Amino acid sequence: MKLETACIHATRDKTHSTGAVPVPIYQAATFAHLGVGQSTGYDYSRTQNPTREHVEKLVAALEGGVGACAFSTGMAAISLLMEIFTPGDEIIATDDLYGGTIRLFNYISEKNGVALHYVDTSDLSIVEAAITDGTRAVFIETPTNPMMKVTDVAGVKRLIGGRDILLIVDNTFLTPYFFNPITLGADIVIHSGTKYLAGHNDTLAGFLVAKSSKIFQRLCFLENTTGAVLSPFDAFLVARGIKTLAIRMEKSQENAIIVARWLKEQKKVTAVHYVGLPEHPAYELSKQQARGFGAMISFSVDSAETACYILNNTELILFAESLGGVESLITYPIMQTHKDVPESELAARGIDNKLLRLSVGIEAIEDIIEDLERVLR
Question: Looking at the structure, do residues 58 and 177 belong to the same domain, yes or no?
Answer without folding.
Answer: yes
